[in-house]
Amino acid sequence: KNEVEQSPQNLTAQEGEFITINCSYSVGISALHWLQQHPGGGIVSLFMLSSGKKKHGRLIATINIQEKHSSLHITASHPRDSAVYICAVSPNYGGATNKLIFGTGTLLAVQP
Amino acid sequence: NAGVTQTPKFQVLKTGQSMTLQCAQDMNHNSMYWYRQDPGMGLRLIYYSASEGTTDKGEVPNGYNVSRLNKREFSLRLESAAPSQTSVYFCASSARGSYNEQFFGPGTRLTVL
Q: Do A98 and B48 touch (CB under 8 A)?
């Protein structure tokens, strides 16, 4: 079992819909990261959070440390939001503190 | 500021050839990383350098070597390329450790025939 699991793996939405992508993890962490990767493109950090909730524009990220779960929400989705969204965690144990553990990503397609 | 730069962007090698992927960052970051990305597997850490002068193995180090040339530059070398090393390679940097935001380079698409 992967230490970081994302769901769904693939998601198709209509423009304007509210979108939720989920991330569950099984290790102790010091932070959780949400990343975005456009097709054929580079990787951009969207959020890094260790508690509560953060908001940037139409994007909202939440984390529940007790439940080892995070969600990424996109409000009023737009075709330019089409991308792969990647969850990654920073472990807080032993020699792993310098390493990120990545989920396999959620491929989002927003149709006009 | 250019952020994190990588060269080359694309490369085709024959089995057994060697090459070095270059990475540089201008953000004065202490930590640098090399990842590979394969379909369905997510990003996997090859090697990382927590600070200048140190390097450590990640999840998939076999077949690779790295050099942290100075604080800015972190190179990845394939001594004898194999088809299993066909992948997209990303370099990243962070201020200090994985609990800081990571900044990624544009990637190198490598094909080994």
A: yes
Touching B: A residues 18-57, CB under 8 Å = 30-31, 33, 35, 41-45, 48, 50
CA–CA min distance B59, chain A (Å): 10
One-letter amino acid for residue B9 of the chain = K
Nearest residue in B to A35, CA atom: B102
State how far the Cα of A82 lies from the Cα of A10, in Å rounded to an integer. Answer: 11
Nearest 5°: phi and psi at A73? -115, 140
The helix or strand, by DSSP H or E, that contains position A19, with its residue range, turns out to be strand A19-25
What is the DSSP pairing of strand A101-102 with strand A106-111? Answer: unpaired
B81 and B89 Cβ atoms separated by less than 8 Å: no
Cβ contacts of B37 within 8 Å, gap of 6 or more: B43, B44, B87, B88, B89, B90, B107
Type of residue at B55: T
Tokens of A49: 């959070």
* pLDDT tens digit sequence for B44-95: 999 999 888 899 999 899 999 999 989 999 999 999 999 999 999 999 999 8
Distance between CA atoms of residues B7 and B108, nearest Å: 7
The pLDDT, as a whole number, for residue A76 is: 96
